[in-house]
Design a protein that fits this description.
With 484 residues, the protein is α/β, with parallel strands linked by helices. It is built from 24 helices and 13 strands. The longest helix is centred in the C-terminal third of the chain and has 21 residues. It starts with a helix and ends in a 7-residue tail after the last helix.
Length: 484
């Protein structure tokens, strides 16, 4: 998967699920949330309480963390541990020795999964071979759901109560709906980040605090001339392409090619046109690497990444890569919000927990999934072992954020994101079957030529719309070849 594809997937607005009108979600921080689920009233009996043995697949997971959470679950399920009035106090403060007293009931065993692009392939392979864990973490529900490897969570009393509590980001729940059914529970999210070379910024006399506060694209671009030195092969921006998928949503929340409703795209929208126009000026200003040929890249940088060589002032990458970029020897890296056109918004890439429909203990699997993914005490306990690296929790309780974000290098940046949750939008691939193919067929195929001025929106927008619709249609009508 190209860097453009990986970042261009953070595209779909809340309108991506607008066709699912049977689902209503409360406003964030609503004191009296009311939610109507696709499955209607609960028709599933209350799950029994252990003993149960469940396998849980987590990329780079911790067996110690999973054991502690299952012990906390046992204690709370049988009533020996009780939540207090202080949010999350049990999960934050109880000693691990005390938790060890609660081993009777559910026993969770870790299945270590690969990270990145290999995760989807591994899960599909496990499903085909009958070795899929009872519960697993994924960032691509549609492929797994269409293959028959997820359990519909509609109608489960434990899931319904979680949603009605209104403590988890509503748009995250909505994005876990595939083909009108809840197929997973949201756990964490990453977001694109604007990284900067702090040394180059300081040498140019730029106050880093202005970057950390978040800049509009216009104000960011105003810094580029002082940071670009072609004679030394230093450039202000590594790549303008990832911004093309994000800027439309900051111009008009209901427009842009990412305003996907009922399978329809509009690459000819004013929001997309404005984004192309703004970024084309950046590329033609020769402030990025986008105009360099492969031979020039090799000549100037050999096989090394120019960012690591200290030749790039700004670049965009996923927040899950924060640890990497802040740990490169000889490189002092800062972290800032993604630039915007009119309104700062928060693009999210979700990870959610799904349940294997072939689990031999399905009621316990569903109930423990809800606890593992959304319970405030469980999340605070998980944070003591290190929360999902480079990602933010989707639980709205502030105390969960305090513990999950911690005191690391990027803690101040991540803390600032909580206020943007009401203005968040979620990538299409988590809840829209065929989204990756639609991106590849439309945006990936034309983005660079559009920014270089080799193609015009008027000439290619209709073809881009048609290619995206075709990719989604083909996925929608295809019969899953991996169904058990």
């Amino acid at each position: 998967m190209s860097a453009l594809t990986a970042l261009a997937l953070a595209l779909a607005l809340l309108s991506a699920c607008a066709s699912q009108s049977a689902t209503g979600f409360p406003a964030i921080f609503d004191e009296n949330p009311q939610i109507t689920l696709p499955g209607g009233a609960s028709t599933t009996p209350t799950p029994k309480v252990g003993p149960a043995s469940l396998s849980v697949g987590i990329p780079s997971g911790s067996s110690e963390m999973l054991t502690a959470v299952s012990e906390l679950y046992n204690g709370m399920t049988d009533g020996r541990l009780v939540k207090t009035d202080e949010p999350g106090s049990v999960g934050a403060r109880i000693s691990l020795d005390d938790l060890a007293k609660f081993t009777e009931g559910l026993n969770a065993t870790l299945v270590d999964l690969p990270t990145g692009d290999a995760l989807r392939t591994a899960l599909l392979g496990m499903g085909a071979s009958g070795t899929l864990p009872d519960i697993y973490l994924t960032d691509e529900l549609p492929a797994l759901s269409r293959a028959g490897y997820t359990t519909s969570l509609d109608g489960w009393a434990s899931v319904e109560s979680l949603l009605q509590e209104g403590k988890v980001l509503p748009v995250a729940f909505q994005s876990c709906i595939v083909d009108g059914k809840i197929q997973g529970l949201p756990y964490s999210a990453s977001t694109p980040v604007l990284f900067y070379n702090a040394t180059l910024i300081a040498d140019a006399g730029i106050d880093a605090s202005t970057l950390d506060a978040g800049l509009s694209l216009r104000n960011l671009v105003a810094l580029f001339p002082a940071l670009t030195k072609p004679t030394t092969h230093q450039y202000a921006l590594y790549d303008a392409l990832p911004l093309l998928s994000l800027l439309p949503s900051t111009r008009d929340v209901s427009a842009g090619w990412s305003g996907f409703v009922n399978g329809s795209f509009d690459f000819g929208s004013q929001a997309f046109t404005d984004s192309v126009t703004a970024l084309r000026a950046v590329v033609k200003g020769q402030w990025t690497l986008d105009l360099l040929t492969k031979d020039q890249l090799t000549k100037y940088y050999s096989t090394s990444d120019p960012r690591i060589l200290g030749k790039i002032a700004f670049w965009i990458d996923d927040s899950s890569r924060v640890s990497y970029w802040t740990g490169v020897a000889g490189l002092t890296t800062g972290i800032a919000p993604i630039p915007y056109l009119d309104e700062r918004r928060l693009p999210l890439s979700l990870r959610c927990f799904a349940v294997n429909p072939k689990s031999t203990d399905l009621p316990d699997a569903v109930r423990f999934t809800g606890f593992l993914a959304t319970d405030a005490d469980a999340l605070r306990l998980e944070s003591r072992f290190g929360f999902d690296s480079g990602r933010i929790p989707l639980q709205l309780e502030s105390s969960v954020w305090t513990d999950a974000i911690g005191q690391g290098t990027a803690s101040l940046y991540f803390t600032s994101l909580r206020s943007l949750l009401p203005k968040s939008f979620v990538e299409g691939r988590i809840g829209v079957p065929g989204w990756s193919a639609a991106v590849a067929a439309s945006l990936d195929a034309h983005a660079l030529k559009l920014l270089q001025g080799l193609e015009s929106i008027q000439t290619v927008s209709a073809d881009m719309d048609a290619a995206a619709r075709k990719a989604l249609s083909e996925t929608s009508s295809a019969t899953p070849g991996l169904a058990p």
